[in-house]
């Protein structure tokens, strides 16, 4: 079954090629071809997971080589695929969630003139993410890494005729280019240090090649962290992700749930044999995650745009994953990555159903009372909201609770990290149920014209909502029966000498505190936005300065605009005016003037008189003879 891993990559690649060559001819068919190819990729991924499960726990690593890719001197880099428990789980999550989003998109994007082009990009996106996950060396990882970056640009700027969409695509591309530079430099240092880019070779010799906390390994891991921070939208490189909402909603769901932003977390987990040798880097990862989680959660409390609230929610939840891997709880981080994929995809697709019904309206201030008109969307969205809030017995409760516990108890954790994680859990419940109450409860603020046409989504959009709601509800239970989820992942780390932090039984006190904060956050949201016991308007007036700071993202985006962006534009103008305008254009104009002057002189030699030409020929002949005679003397 593990040998089927090549099919996991092949199917979405075939779907991309079909849409490229035949998308314009048969756009509707191309959409379903794209869905079929991702579906077949999912079936293949499940067969790979089953094959890995069938292997002994200490023998679940398989490396398949297609052919020797690059060979130069002592360096040999094959085109190889790396399959282990971590990779097998990731490909199932990526293809499974992507399949549901593709099905949803056939309804959401129906009638769009770029329908075929959209599904071409979507299939290429899935292929690139799968290549990133299954790569057996850092060079092939870089190919998939660049691929998801390219596809994010193409999909975020899909409606490129809209200035905000085009600008958001460019912003995502530029910020992620910073991460790409970090990855390239890290790979270069890895090659210099270990004389290889192959995972197995590098990870097995890491402990004997570098010393714990040495400058080399710290530099390598910090550069890898730059790549991860950019891709997973953590501080200070988070700024591209909220603007990415300018793309179609299925794109937002795919980026936030199954691809792109999870790549940074996966990179740290995959390269854990290197990161655990750099204690300083691990500490930085944990604190970046904790601060980002809290930072983004506070912003989610005030944003009026439903998709932007969910975007900041993603930034915050990714912060939890970074916190987990930063305290060496790699399994817990991947566990939350999986459950987050279920409930975050559901939240975005539910929001998309609302936006679709309201003819593109995204401002929650123009919604309200939708639960009676869109009951299926409401119920599924509510399940996702409960799951992300860490409500007992739903998926998010189990994965987030494990991270909070290990933030306190792991040798790399601390009380401060744990308190931040707990407090952020309460804020999560507040901001997500703010969305629930403002969008679906209370009086309708929908315009009369739109209210007459409100409807539930069609089957293509509704079915993925139902399936994701089931997964968001029960997805956390994979941690319990028989070999638990985190235990299954263990060989991916222990094979190379990594000992991840794991929860030693249920911490009743922390679980109780988490439940109290979750339920308390929901109650606070209910009292403010559900019952208006304390109106949001009055709160906004009472805390006007804080609200302004939060609405403006703490001024970070503005700071970047005034410094980095202004500097780049200034340098651009400088080069355009001085280098291009004076130096480069001056050289070109001088050459043009010289040619023009010579042409005037040469033109005067063209008299049209035969005797003049005869004299010139005679003079030339005399000079040649004189030269030859001189040479013969």
For the structure shown, list the relevant keywords.
633 residues; mainly alpha; 26 helices; 73% helix
> How much helix, percentage-wise, in residues?
over 70%
For the report, how would you describe the main beta sheet? 2 strands, antiparallel
Helix and strand content put the structural class at: mainly alpha
Number of strands: 2
Oligomer: single chain
Overall 3D shape: globular
Strand order of the largest sheet: 1-2
SSE string, helix = H, strand = E? HHEEHHHHHHHHHHHHHHHHHHHHHHHH
Low-confidence stretches: none
Number of helices: 26
What does this structure look like?
The structure is a single chain. By secondary structure, the chain is mostly helical. Among the domains are: 279-551, no CATH class; 557-632. It contains 26 helices and two strands. A two-stranded antiparallel sheet has the order 1-2. β1 and β2 form a beta hairpin. α2 (27-54) runs antiparallel to α3 (85-108) and α15 (330-357) packs across α21. The longest helix has 50 residues, at 556-605. The radius of gyration is 30 Å and the shape is globular. The mean pLDDT is 92.
Structure in a nutshell:
The chain has helices at 5-22, 27-54, 85-108, 115-134, 138-156, 163-194, 199-209, 215-231, 240-243, 249-258, 263-270, 272-275, 279-300, 306-326, 330-357, 375-388, 395-409, 415-440, 448-451, 459-474, 485-494, 508-530, 536-542, 544-551, 556-605, 610-632, and strands at 62-72, 75-83. By secondary structure, it is mainly alpha-helical. The protein has a two-stranded antiparallel sheet.
């Amino acid at each position: 079954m593990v040998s089927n891993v090549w099919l996991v990559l092949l199917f979405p690649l075939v779907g991309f090629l079909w849409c490229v060559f035949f998308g314009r001819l048969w756009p509707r068919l191309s959409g379903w071809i794209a869905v079929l190819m991702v579906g077949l990729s999912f079936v293949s991924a499940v067969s790979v997971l089953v094959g890995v499960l069938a292997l002994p726990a200490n023998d679940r690593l398989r490396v398949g080589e297609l052919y020797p890719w690059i060979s130069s001197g002592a360096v040999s880099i094959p085109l190889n695929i790396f399959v282990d428990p971590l990779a097998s789980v990731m490909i199932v999550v990526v293809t499974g969630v992507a399949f549901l989003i593709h099905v949803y998109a056939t309804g959401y994007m129906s009638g769009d003139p770029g329908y075929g082009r959209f599904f071409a990009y979507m299939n290429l996106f899935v292929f690139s993410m799968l290549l990133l996950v299954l790569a057996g060396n850092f060079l092939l990882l870089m190919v998939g890494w660049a691929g998801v970056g390219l596809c994010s640009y193409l999909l975020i700027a899909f409606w490129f005729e809209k200035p905000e969409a085009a600008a958001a695509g460019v912003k995502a591309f530029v910020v992620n280019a910073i991460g790409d530079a970090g990855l390239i430099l890290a790979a270069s240092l890895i090659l210099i240090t270990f004389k290889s880019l192959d995972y197995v070779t590098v990870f097995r010799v890491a402990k004997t090649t570098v010393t714990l906390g040495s400058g080399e390994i710290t530099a390598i891991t910090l550069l890898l962290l730059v790549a991860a921070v950019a891709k997973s939208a953590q501080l200070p490189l988070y700024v591209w992700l909220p603007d990415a909402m300018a793309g179609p909603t299925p794109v937002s769901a795919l980026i936030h749930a199954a691809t792109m932003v999870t790549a940074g977390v996966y990179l740290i987990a995959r390269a854990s044999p290197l990161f655990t040798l750099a204690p300083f880097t691990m500490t930085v990862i944990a604190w970046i995650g904790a601060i980002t989680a809290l930072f983004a959660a506070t912003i989610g409390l005030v944003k009026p745009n439903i998709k932007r609230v969910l975007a900041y929610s993603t930034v915050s939840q990714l912060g939890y994953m970074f916190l987990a891997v930063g305290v060496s709880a790699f399994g817990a981080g991947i566990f939350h990555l999986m459950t987050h994929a279920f409930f975050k995809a559901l939240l975005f697709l539910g929001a998309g159903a609302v936006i679709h019904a309201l003819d593109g309206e995204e401002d929650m201030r123009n919604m309200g009372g939708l639960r009676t008109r869109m009951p299926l969307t409401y119920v599924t969205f509510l399940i996702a909201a409960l799951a992300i809030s860490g409500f007992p017995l739903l998926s998010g409760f189990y994965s987030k609770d494990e991270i909070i516990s290990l933030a306190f108890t792991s040798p790399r954790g601390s009380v401060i990290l744990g308190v931040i994680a707990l407090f952020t859990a309460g804020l999560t419940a507040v901001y997500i149920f703010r969305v629930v109450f403002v969008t679906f409860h209370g009086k309708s603020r929908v315009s009369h014209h739109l209210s007459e046409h409100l409807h539930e989504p069609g089957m293509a959009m509704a079915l993925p909502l139902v399936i994701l709601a089931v997964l968001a509800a029960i997805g956390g239970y994979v941690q319990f029966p028989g070999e638990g989820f985190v235990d299954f992942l263990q060989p991916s780390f222990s094979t190379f000498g990594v000992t991840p932090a794991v929860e030693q039984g249920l911490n009743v006190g922390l679980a109780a505190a988490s439940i109290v904060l979750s339920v308390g956050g929901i109650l606070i949201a209910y009292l403010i936005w559900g019952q208006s016991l304390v109106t949001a308007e009055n709160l906004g007036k009472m805390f006007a300065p804080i609200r302004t700071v939060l609405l403006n993202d703490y001024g970070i985006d503005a700071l970047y605009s005034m410094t980095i962006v202004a500097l780049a534009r200034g340098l651009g103008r400088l080069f355009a005016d001085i280098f291009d305008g004076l130096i480069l254009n001056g050289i070109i104009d001088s050459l043009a003037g010289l040619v023009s002057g010579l042409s005037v002189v040469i033109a005067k030699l063209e008299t049209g008189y035969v005797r003049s030409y005869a004299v010139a020929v005679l003079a030339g002949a005399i000079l040649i003879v004189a030269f030859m005679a001189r040479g013969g003397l």
